[in-house]
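Bumping my old thread because nobody answered last time. Still need a sequence for this structure:
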């Protein structure tokens, strides 16, 4: 079987014989040297892809914010199994309509990619189909934008049939407008009537039709899954439903495991949870259902929001939301705003909400952002105040917010009993309002505290 090489020059094969021997001499030279060595060994491990990151922020954006966004993009790349080698930043009033970055920056990226043998370039924004084609033609490596990277991570995380269908639908919707020029054979024609002389149907038309048919099939399948999920949720009548919401990687699954004593997958990576998980919990004879839902993120692809309708219905139909925030993250306030905006988009922003700040054990009020190599045109915010202490934040948020606020550490189990007590009070109050005859031994006095 012929070996296929990707755009970055790496070779992949199903054979256990690696393209390069373990004497650190890669490629054809390494194979020739290995032939002369009967004791030569081969590294059969799958090589991780390497990438550079590219961001085009507004000229007024502070450097600390730009770095924060690139840190998140690097975390996404790491979650997808990619090693990030370098970061490129170009400040423009607006991205170049043809190649997103300017001509000089594109030449700089190309020189670095060729010199280091990089296999992928990842952009922190969505690229148009024409920009994608122009960049691939110029850089001759794989080009990935933010949406495709997130969709790829979702594809690796999805376990249930519903989640897999949702991700596949998002993939096809992303692919459809980008079919032109995707394969070299698309200029050929297929068909042409009985005499084979007509213009026929070009392969691009055929491929588009195949993708559209697949999208229609997946939408029908998801409608069936929605009906099943709706039936399951209807069968949960008579019990209060609570949903954990928040930015990705804030510790929702860890909290879920603590409260429900279950074993939901939790990992220090983005989008560890894609499938929603529901557990029945009872505190002080007050039963309720707790849902762990998919995390939100800045610039979450609209296709994913649309595709994950049935999963997000767990949030829409919840009686109480627990908004979990990673207080150790320097941009946690922006993350709160992103989650609130996404809740508005899915029409769930008007629900009762508890705000829970997690990871207080990792909070550092004097942490300064370290500068990364590869930045140019620095635009530092010299007037930015020092981060407040944890005590100052507690006083501030407890004073200015009407909703209850709690500060915890799920990892270190700090203030978890307080979280249980807070949940119990609010769930019991909702339960008493809706189902006054089903609270068992829980007293009305406790509910009304």
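Sorry it took so long. Here it is:
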């Amino acid at each position: 079987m012929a070996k296929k090489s990707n755009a970055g020059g790496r070779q992949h094969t199903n054979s256990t014989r690696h393209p390069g021997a373990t004497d650190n001499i890669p490629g054809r030279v390494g194979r020739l040297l290995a032939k002369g060595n009967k004791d030569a060994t081969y590294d059969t491990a799958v090589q991780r892809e390497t990438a550079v990151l590219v961001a085009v922020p507004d000229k007024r954006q502070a450097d600390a914010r730009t770095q924060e966004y690139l840190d998140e993009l690097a975390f996404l790349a790491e979650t997808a199994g990619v090693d990030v080698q370098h970061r490129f930043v170009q400040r423009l009033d607006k991205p170049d309509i043809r190649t997103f970055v300017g001509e000089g920056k594109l030449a700089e990226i190309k020189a670095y990619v060729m010199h280091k043998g990089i296999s992928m370039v990842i952009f922190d924004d969505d690229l148009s189909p024409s920009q994608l084609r122009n960049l691939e033609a110029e850089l001759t490596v794989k080009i990935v934008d933010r949406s495709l990277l997130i969709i790829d991570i979702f594809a690796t995380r999805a376990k249930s049939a519903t989640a897999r269908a949702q991700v596949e639908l998002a993939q096809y919707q992303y692919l459809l407008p980008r079919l032109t020029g995707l394969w070299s054979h698309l200029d050929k024609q297929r068909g042409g009537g009985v005499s084979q002389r007509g213009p026929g149907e070009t392969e691009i038309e055929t491929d588009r039709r195949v993708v559209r048919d697949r999208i229609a099939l997946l939408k029908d399948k998801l409608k069936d899954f929605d009906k099943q999920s709706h039936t399951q949720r209807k069968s949960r009548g008579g019990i209060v439903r609570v949903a954990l919401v928040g930015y990705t990687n804030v510790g929702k699954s860890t909290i879920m495991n603590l409260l429900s004593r279950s074993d939901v997958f939790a990992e220090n990576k983005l989008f560890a949870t894609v499938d929603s998980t529901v557990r029945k919990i009872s505190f002080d004879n007050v039963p309720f259902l707790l849902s762990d839902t998919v995390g939100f993120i800045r610039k979450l692809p609209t296709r994913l929001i649309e595709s994950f309708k049935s999963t997000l219905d767990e949030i829409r139909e919840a009686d109480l939301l627990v908004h979990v925030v990673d207080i150790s993250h320097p941009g946690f306030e922006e993350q709160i705003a992103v989650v609130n905006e996404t809740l508005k988009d899915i029409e769930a922003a008007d629900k009762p909400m508890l705000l829970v700040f997690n990871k207080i054990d990792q909070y550092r009020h004097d942490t300064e952002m370290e500068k990364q190599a590869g930045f140019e045109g620095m635009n530092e915010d010299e007037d930015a105040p020092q981060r407040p202490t944890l005590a100052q934040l507690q006083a501030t948020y407890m004073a200015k917010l009407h909703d209850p606020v709690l500060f915890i550490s799920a990892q270190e189990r700090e203030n978890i009993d307080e979280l249980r007590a807070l949940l119990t009070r609010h769930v019991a109050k909702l339960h008493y309002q809706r189902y006054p005859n089903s609270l068992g031994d829980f007293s009305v006095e406790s509910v009304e505290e």
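Residues 203-234 form the longest helix (32 residues). Let me know if any region looks off to you.
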